[in-house]
Known about the structure:
Layout: H1 6-25, H2 27-38, H3 42-63, H4 67-70, H5 72-92, H6 96-124, H7 132-157, H8 161-180, H9 193-196, H10 208-238, H11 245-265, H12 271-295, H13 298-324, H14 332-361, H15 363-387, H16 392-397
Helix pairs in contact: 1-6, 1-7, 1-8, 2-7, 2-10, 2-11, 3-6, 3-14, 5-6, 5-8, 6-7, 6-14, 7-8, 7-11, 7-13, 10-11, 10-13, 10-14, 10-15, 11-13, 12-13, 12-15, 14-15
Amino acid sequence: MPRLPRPLAFWSVAGLLVLVLAASGVPSPLYRVYQEQFGFGAGVLTLVFGIYALALLAALLVVGSLSDHVGRRPVLAGALLLQAVAMVAFLVADGVGWLLAARVLQGLSTGALTGSLGAALLDMQRRDRPLGALLNSVAPGLGLSLGAFGAGLAIETVVSPTPWVFGVLTVVFVLGAVLAWALPETSPRLPGALASLRPRVAVPQPQRRAFLVATPALVALWAMGGLVLSLGPSLTAGVFGVEDHLVGSLLILCMQGSAAVGSVLARDLAPRRAMAGGCLVFATAIVGLLVGLVSGTLWLFFVAAGVAGLGFGAAFLGSVATVTAGVSPGHRGGLLSSIFVVGYLAFSIPAIIAGLAVNTLGLRVVAEVYGVVVIALALVAAAGLRLSRPRRPAAVAAEEPAESLAA
Length: 407
């Protein structure tokens, strides 16, 4: 098969990453539809949500660095075909069991794709204009918001939204698997493919200190993202009394879409400054979100969610740029997978606990407690950055713009 030119291949990989993450956001607005059809509560809802993240984590831990050893193309093609199978499972779902199966398949596929697509972006970026770290940071917010908003729009405008949404995505992912074979191979193909399947968090020694510093920020950011994606539409309906499915999708778009904007705005900041400043903006915005929740002020709730997204984007870009600075090509897939392992652990487990607590404490109280914990974590992250003193090489790197560090 003819290979795509490197610039076209780079943007094709970026498009595939956004598409995969958009598909992961599609079910969020549909959860309330499934609740009405299959008759389950908030606890089951967050279980359906959380099992996806746990399956994704399993894939990240087992095959997260596989593309460093066997090549990017075979991993991408196989995982995209598995994503198409997951869309078919959503398409035929007629109960909770099918939803759980579909989310497991989707999680496994997304976990395999996240690290390999992110590594391919770092491999193929231009040295004079490195955009890999920026696109890896923008993609989650952009993809999740597009997927959630598109699904919410389909619910409001199409009589039977699920066949349309998942039917189209099935075809798109099959075509994406074909496209993967047209990409140039950029993996160094290191030996030890079988050994790489041993579950582990693969952080090379030079990047471990930066990884430890960035961890509290990753936990705070992704934990709040998990709450909004799992229970956001339920919050707009149960707390503010807005039953419109599109409004619940707009909440996800508001936070995740502005996260993409936040990454772009922070691209010229030094990474540690982007991370610390983003965490402070994020924490302040969550305070506003809680005020809107307690006072029942919907507009304040949405504005605060948007500002929180800006902080999310800046802090996540700074985290990715700091952790991936100077990583060798043969360790890029494993390191990016490790970043997302932390993110998706924070994304899933707190949201599952919150969903189970709703029946006892109520949706509003759970959201308030959750918000306070997230604020504390964000402030700890900012304080940790302030107190830590990087070694000389990291200090030099910290003067460079965040988008240039993964060159």
